[in-house]
């Protein structure tokens, strides 16, 4: 607003100071103490005329202050700690600076515009994300991020998404919205949805048809006469697919908005790898959206790929992406299994030489559905028998004749 001439903030300690940051990147003069996190963006490097060296210089009206321990009545455990220090602005300095900004507003406005230009170039989303990554991850990960960033969406092959729909009325609406909101859905994805519900069950059908009309070039939808089982449906969908990469999309699971893009880039970067998988957040409440996931949510943490690790645990689990070409060599999912056919297939692929790579970031949300095929406690007895059979079938091949024992 034209009547707002400056931002005045005399807080004892502002942390990063988002109101100050907003004022500064909007080109508004700022009056504040020379203390706390807002100094990260209220100082600007200036090159000395003679030495040509850069020096951080304040581009705001600095108010003098005195430091003192935080008062006992202000202590707030976990937020304002007892041993913290507070900046107490000096009244005389504040009055002088306030008068100065008022009388020399043109000079301070010019200074604020220079700071604004610096902030808009220095504090971009890309730069801040990079600083965050550097503080968390190692050089190998950052190198992979850099390589992935150079891959353009146009360079990615077509990706086939396969989904089996059966009694998914609680999840279908959000599933359709979640998948069609993926960053590369319209440009690079075909989605094959096979509905195994009884013909009388029309709710899922109505929801899916709405999205078919919206994305006719992306969604292939078919109703089946009967339910042949999830792996038979996957096999049928794979045979119908025309993409180079395939990923299963489960009705009750969710993914990060750029998950398909990140997984596809990982496969493009690693031409010797047949499959990419990642960790997921583990939730017990249905239809949890990615943006609503709490930072403390339990993480489904999978090991780096090896044959031994794959024998211990189904590493790809709920959200892998793989090359369609592995089916030429290894066939399809064994339809006699009700829950373990994917683990059996990945072990078969690894036994014939396929390699998998783990994406370093969390890309999915796994819902522990109490009514799911593999998670319903009523299915535990036959599920364990399937797993024992799969383990025994692949044990020798995965251990490469080593004497090492693995307990399932």
How does this structure look, described?
The structure is a single chain. This protein is an alpha/beta fold. Helices cover 38% and strands 20% of the residues. It has helices at 18-25, 39-42, 91-103, 105-122, 125-136, 139-150, 172-180, 185-188, 203-214, 230-240, 259-269, 307-312, 326-330, 341-351, 380-399, and strands at residues 7-9, 30-33, 43-47, 54-58, 61-63, 65-69, 85-89, 159-165, 189-195, 219-223, 245-248, 254-255, 275-283, 299-300, 321-323, 356-367. Strands 8, 9, 10, 11, 12, 13, 14, 15 and 16 form a 9-stranded mixed sheet that branches. A 3-stranded parallel sheet has the order 1-2-5. β1 (7-9), α1 and β2 (30-33) form a beta-alpha-beta unit. It is elongated. Mean pLDDT is 91; it is low at 401-408.
């Amino acid at each position: 607003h034209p009547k707002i001439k400056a931002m005045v903030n005399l807080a004892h300690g502002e942390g990063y100071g988002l109101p100050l940051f907003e004022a500064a990147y909007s080109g508004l003069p700022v009056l504040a103490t020379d203390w706390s996190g807002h100094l990260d963006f209220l100082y600007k490097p200036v090159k000395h005329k003679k030495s040509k060296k850069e020096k951080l210089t304040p581009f705001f009206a600095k108010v003098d202050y005195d430091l003192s321990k935080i008062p006992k009545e202000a202590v707030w455990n976990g937020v304002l700690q007892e041993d913290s220090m507070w900046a107490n602005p000096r009244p005389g300095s504040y009055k002088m600076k306030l008068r100065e900004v008022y009388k020399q507003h043109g000079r301070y406005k010019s200074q604020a515009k220079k700071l604004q230009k610096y902030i808009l170039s220095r504090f971009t989303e890309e730069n801040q994300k990079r600083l965050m990554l550097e503080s968390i991850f190692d050089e190998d990960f950052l190198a992979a991020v850099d390589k992935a960033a150079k891959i353009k969406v146009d360079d990615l092959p077509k990706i086939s998404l396969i989904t089996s729909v059966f009694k998914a009325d609680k999840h279908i609406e959000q599933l359709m919205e979640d998948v069609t909101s993926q960053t590369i859905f319209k440009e690079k994805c075909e989605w094959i949805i096979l509905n195994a519900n009884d013909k009388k069950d029309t709710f899922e059908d109505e929801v899916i048809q709405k999205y078919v009309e919206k994305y006719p070039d992306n969604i292939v939808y078919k109703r089946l006469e009967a339910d042949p089982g999830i792996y038979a449906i996957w096999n049928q969908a794979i045979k119908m697919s025309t993409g180079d990469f395939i990923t299963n999309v489960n009705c009750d699971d969710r993914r990060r908005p750029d998950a398909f893009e990140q997984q596809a880039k990982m496969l493009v970067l690693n031409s010797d790898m047949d499959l990419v998988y990642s960790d997921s957040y583990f939730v017990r409440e249905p239809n949890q959206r990615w943006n609503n996931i709490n930072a403390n949510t339990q993480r489904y943490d999978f090991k780096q790929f090896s044959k031994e690790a794959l024998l211990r645990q189904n590493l790809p689990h709920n959200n892998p992406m793989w090359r369609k070409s592995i089916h030429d060599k290894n066939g399809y999912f064994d339809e006699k299994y009700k829950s373990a056919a994917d683990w059996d297939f990945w072990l078969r692929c690894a036994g014939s030489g396929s390699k998998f790579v783990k994406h370093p970031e969390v890309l999915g949300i796994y819902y522990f559905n109490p009514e799911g095929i593999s998670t319903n406690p009523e299915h535990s007895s036959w599920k364990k028998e399937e797993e024992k059979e799969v383990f025994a079938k692949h044990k020798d091949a995965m251990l490469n004749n080593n004497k090492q024992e693995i307990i399932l």
